[in-house]
# Entry
Amino acid sequence: MNYTTAKNKSSIDFLLSILFLQYMLYVTIIFNILIARQVMGILYLTFIPGLVFIKLLELKKLDIAEKILFSVGLSIAFSMIVGLFINEIYPLLGIKQPLLLTPTLITQSTIVLIAVIIYSLKNQETTQLSFDKNALPIFVIPVTLFILGIYSTFALNTTMDNSIALTIIIAITILFLSTVLSQKINQKFYPLILLAISTSILFFVFNDTALITKYIIGKGDQWIEYQAFKLTLTNSHWNSTLPPTQYTDVLFPTYSMLGVTTLPTIFTQITQLDESWTFKIIYPFIVSFMALGTYKLYTTQTDEKTAFLATFFFITIATGKGWGSAKQMIAQLFYVLLLLLLINKKISPQKRKILFIIFSFALVTSHYALSYIFTFMIISFLILSFLLNYFRGGTPITNEFKTLTSLTMIHLIIVFSWGIYINASESFNLLLDSINTITRHINEFFEPQSRGTALSGLGVVPTPTIFHQISAALFLLTESFIVIGFLRMITKREKTGFSRQYIILSTLNLAIIAANLLLPRLADTFLMSRFYQTTLIVLAPVGILGGQTFTEQILKINLKKLSASILAIVILIPLFLFQTGLIYEIAKVRNESMALSMYRWGRLELHKSITETEEVLGAAWLSKYVASSEIFVYSDIVSKYQVLTAYGTIERGRILLLSNSTKTVLNNNEFVYLGYMGVIDGKIETQLVNVGYCILNTTDLLIMLGNQNQIYSNGECSILQGYMFKP
# Structure
């Protein structure tokens, strides 16, 4: 067989493989084969389109970890772009609900099939992935962690037994330490180990994504994101021209983001996952690949062992400070892919432009704040690169600078086009509001309280026990390592191996942290913890460099080869055990980890984090049988911001807080929603003027409640309706 024939056979085999996968996907959907449909749908949408386009673009220089990473990024971006296309074009062809199963499935699979056929006709060689039999023991690791996680979830939901959750954290610690100390573990397995660690943490340890309940949890934007998704799913259409009203202002600009509107709708339609499980499975699964992204970013600057430590450091801080809400999760994946394209030159300039456009669009349509941070980064990166070349006496206008300039212009066009023309410019208005907030409070420059969450986001928090004091000290120590590492990086660049481009990126990220400390109210626009976690995507290896410098130079320990091991044992492992909550749980002190300590929480604390089935049923009933866009609902503060917003899809401006000053006679378009605590415990949490957050007994509201008609009750949730006709 000659070479040309071999290439033909290879490309045809690839075409047949994709055809077979699409056939199996259609079979599982048509016959609605449980589990098989969900697994096939998730794997297909997450990997296959991206893999096809990697072949089409001939990205042959990518290693296996990079191919997986870019496959995920391209696949998710593909679903977002296709979703937007059919959402805007199909209604013009008479299809009023374009995001139903049939249009989305046929369009997705047809485009993928066309791309595969084009690839086959180009007669390109398909790289065959070989399996190393010596790698089999390594694959046991993620399987074991996954099995432990499933059992842990079952134990927590049935008996509140946290022993398996503790075991998972201990197992991750042992795995990390063994990888750092062992000389037998091949470095090519580092990405798999990191992926196993991040996936286990996200699904079974991290509060906002742990599979502890079947409903979404958390205290951030998840509830608004879920509402935006439900509105899109219910209508099978995303309204890009929908303007905010006096009752829906909180919904925007979240509703403007494809990452939480069309993307989960497509996944739900094809997989038929329960809507809550779409959020609880898809987003943590996607963001877990950040471990691959950060690792590959760091290996462009450091050796594999240092990159491994830096990625673990990033995962640890993200677990403690938060991975962000759903839209921020997927945006971070595109963010790190864009950084890779800026730093890694193994992809040709023309193909980098194509990938940059795709990932830039995906970032902008996933998370407004992160896209603005990247906009600042790339503009500043361009300017500093020019100035650096100019003052070094070189040619400032190099081919690389021209490429960077064109990438910057493309990104700016996408940012401002989307921000200005979608949903009455709400995402762009948010940026302007943030700028106005900062300028309006600039006169508070010398007032420490004007920094808002800046200090707490950097670890300066109350420390009620010795354990909290140790945790805070470790956290602050790692921040000092970043400063030490940065100083060494800029003074001894040749020895550290960091490129000038990476030094510029590090400088810009440190500038972001400094700006949050200096400018009043800036930290509150995105929350300092999110700013820090985002900057750590770049700064993590700088922190590891600082830690190694600390052990080698400051402590005068002449053990250069062992500096990574010392850093892991003395700093990173204790930090990880504190950030995951294991030490707090062992010591039985205050701990916010649901997986480890919710059995010690009081009823009110559980109510803030866990939504009961009966509460969801009550909110859904209210949304289904009452015109939710024409009513007002009185409720406790937790129900307002969580279950009524997400599962009731009630405009948050129409949800009012119950209090002892609530009028005693309600109109017939006004309702009272009492959740589990109100019905079973007879208590509600609310917020009163001049008092703040407080607990009221329902007995204090007997007159008001007694004047209304009960129209719904399931034993743990009750809905009352006023009887007065609205004048």
Notes: The chain has three domains: 3-121, 133-214+274-587, 606-721. The CA atoms of residues 587 and 623 lie 44 Å apart. The chain has 32 helices and seven strands.
